[in-house]
Amino acid sequence: MAQKGKYRLNPETLIVELKAEKHHRLLKALGVLLGGAVLFALYVWLYGHVLGNDLPKTAILKRQSADWLSRLEQMEGRLDRDEEVLSLLEVRDDRIYRSVYGMDEIPAQVRSDVPGVENRYPALAAMDRNNLLRRTAARLDGLSKAAYVQSKSFDEVSALADAAGDKAAHIPAIPPMSTAPGSFTLTSPFGVRSDPITGAGKMHTGMDFACPPGNPVYATGDGVVILVENDFYGYGNHIEVDHGFGYVTRYSHLSDMYAYVGQKVRRGDCLGTSGRSGRVTGPHLHYEVMYRHDYVNPAAYMDLDISPEDYAAMVRKPFRR
User: Fold this and answer.
1) Partner of 98 for a Cys bridge, out of 1, 26, 58, 103, CB 3.0 to 4.6 A?
2) CATH class name, domain 185-314
């Protein structure tokens, strides 16, 4: 009995053959695909779960993750080095540069505190289980803040240095009179002593240079004369010089005074002569140094062992009678 269906002539064999139906071919193709899928699933299961290997995509993601972790660790190392260098700059800035110019230190909280930094990166919370990204980002914020503050501090110091010029010339750094032998005798240093008139213990706020009346008295640093006055019951004839940078010097119990208020003086300019005016027991120069309104020991700012020749070389104006 002939099979139902469509027939066709095979051009090679010249035999009439039954033509296969399309749905038979489709079923065959689906069977091949299904078998391939089963084999692929079996391969994945054996490769991953049985042999313990990562799938190619997973291996790629793990390599990328390890690469980023390595980069973050390198960044952490660089941050450690940068923070160490910046810390040294901060110490040098506070203890040397700002101190030299009489500026206050910058508090540590001002240098590196970044308010709200712990809540600044909410998008990283879901993907950053060990907080490495957020911790690195927070350190970068703190380092950026500290670097900005340090840069502004250097700008302030630089501006003050430019405006001040040569500060060394303004510091009261030499004795107020010649160190030639016989010029003076130090009778009372800075500190607590018995008052020579009352005998009571009292703070002596300067140094006393006992000498004959008429010894030249010189400015110990560059500055501007801010006071020329006579105090009959105290300092007698005395002169005050503002040197800037917080320094003021006072020259007391003078005989003659050559300076005037508002006069600009340089180190070594003759201000007057020693005497015994005011409240004294004998002729001498009472010399004081004030720094930021506090009395300081003048001996810390001068070298009494300087040779008379070197001292004379610093005196630019001749003594005037």
Assistant:
1) 103
2) mainly beta
The full set of domain ranges for the chain reads 56-165, 185-314
Residues 250 and 255: their CA atoms lie apart, in Å, by: 14
Measure the CA–CA gap between 157 and 106, rounded to whole angstroms.
12
Q: Which of 319, 232, 219 is nearest to 278 (CA)?
A: 232
CA distances from 167 to 101, 174, 218, 223, 270 (A): 9, 14, 19, 11, 21
The closest of 277, 281, 242 to 257, measured between CA atoms, is 277
Q: Which two tokens stand for residue 6?
A: 């469509």
pLDDT tens digits, one per residue of 48-91? 665 556 566 666 776 777 777 777 778 888 888 888 888 888 88
**What pLDDT digit, counting tens, does each position of 300-318 carry?**
888 888 899 999 988 865 5
pTM over 0.85: no
Q: How far apart are CA 72 and CA 90, in angstroms?
A: 26
Reading the block at residue 298, the tokens are 């003048």
Cα Rg for the chain, rounded, in angstroms? 45
Q: Is residue 17's pLDDT more than 70?
A: no
Alpha-carbon gap, residue 149 to 155, rounded angstroms: 10
Report H helices in 93-209: 98-100, 108-112, 132-164
Among residues 72, 85, 79, 92, the alpha carbon closest in space to that of 141 is found at 79
Q: Which of 246, 233, 256, 242 is nearest to 293 (CA)?
A: 246
